[in-house]
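F.,

This is the one I mentioned.
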């Protein structure tokens, strides 16, 4: 796309050339990446991205991957990173660099669902999300297709519910249905039942500029039907960064957040005091940045990165020099 002049907001959103990148990386220990739209689109790696991460590892930089996608376990994400050429640990603990919303939602429920009865969640989400919950002792019901039963609303409301469900968890669910929405609302009418959303992304970018509806669309449907506000785990919520910080011992001043979305990746970085880089291989554009810079809305003004690149491959010259 044609370049849009940015950087008018206190010098933020400056193109990260090789010289600036060398200076920036000299003061950094840890680089945190979003995945979809940054490292890959669908099943295709962004050109030059694997080589960039290999060069960062060779320079001794600690890498972490923060993804709002709840459809894979940590181990599955680590396998995809290796398969697409990004490297990373193997064997037991291979997923230690990955902080996805499935894993972090499990940590959140482990903190919140203490005491009897044993923790149980109604999950509008993937097998992977359920696996991460069950790994920390939260049993799961509701995963998979759930078509309407009976011939009308009365029959739908007569469907039996599982006992002792203490949370409704909404993640990416290709089997989302009216029956699931109805059951979720019924569980949420029970005293003390939590409503947790893995993230609020409204779309998921794929190859060739295509996209599909994201988890945020499903969370909003449940929130509206239940007249409740969900606890959100993923970016830009600070909780997901706290999960990384607790395991990595991060110094925010020596950490970069790299992402393709202003409203999740960049806002998380700004909120948590990290340096931020927007890559233009995903959702947000420089026109979006300029709009935020010129906005009278303080929350939008926060969604401006320190730097931008066309692709994270733009970092390679600084790493090879």
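My design for it:
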């Amino acid at each position: 796309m044609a370049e849009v002049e940015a950087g008018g907001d206190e010098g933020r959103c400056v193109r990260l050339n090789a010289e600036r990148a060398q200076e920036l990386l000299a003061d950094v220990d840890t680089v945190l990446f979003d995945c979809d739209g940054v490292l890959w689109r669908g099943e295709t790696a962004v050109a030059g991205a694997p080589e960039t991460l290999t060069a960062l590892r060779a320079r001794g930089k600690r890498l972490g991957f923060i993804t709002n996608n709840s459809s894979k376990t940590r181990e599955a994400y680590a396998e995809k990173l290796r398969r697409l050429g990004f490297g990373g640990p193997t064997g037991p603990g291979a997923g230690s660099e990955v902080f996805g919303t499935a894993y972090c939602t499990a940590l959140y429920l482990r903190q919140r669902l203490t005491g009897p009865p044993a923790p149980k969640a109604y999950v509008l989400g993937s097998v992977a999300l359920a696996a991460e919950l069950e790994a920390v002792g939260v049993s799961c019901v509701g995963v998979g297709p759930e078509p309407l039963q009976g011939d009308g609303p009365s029959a739908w409301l007569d469907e039996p519910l599982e006992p002792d469900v203490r949370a409704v968890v909404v993640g990416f669910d290709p089997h989302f249905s009216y029956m699931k929405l109805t059951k979720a609302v019924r569980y949420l009418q029970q005293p003390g039942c939590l409503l947790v959303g893995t993230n609020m992304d409204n779309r998921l970018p794929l190859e060739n500029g295509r996209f599909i509806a994201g988890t945020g669309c499903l969370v909003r449907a449940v929130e509206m039907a239940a007249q409740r506000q969900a606890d959100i785990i993923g970016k830009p919520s600070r909780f997901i960064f706290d999960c990384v910080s607790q395991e990595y011992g991060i110094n925010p001043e020596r950490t970069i957040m790299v992402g393709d979305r202003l409203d999740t990746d960049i806002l998380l970085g700004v909120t948590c005091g990290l340096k931020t880089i927007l890559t233009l291989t995903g959702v947000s554009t420089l026109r979006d940045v300029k709009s935020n810079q010129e906005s009278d809305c303080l929350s939008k003004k926060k969604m401006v990165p320190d730097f931008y690149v066309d692709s994270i491959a733009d970092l390679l010259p600084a790493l090879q020099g």
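Residues 195 and 230 are 5 Å apart (CA to CA).

Talk soon.
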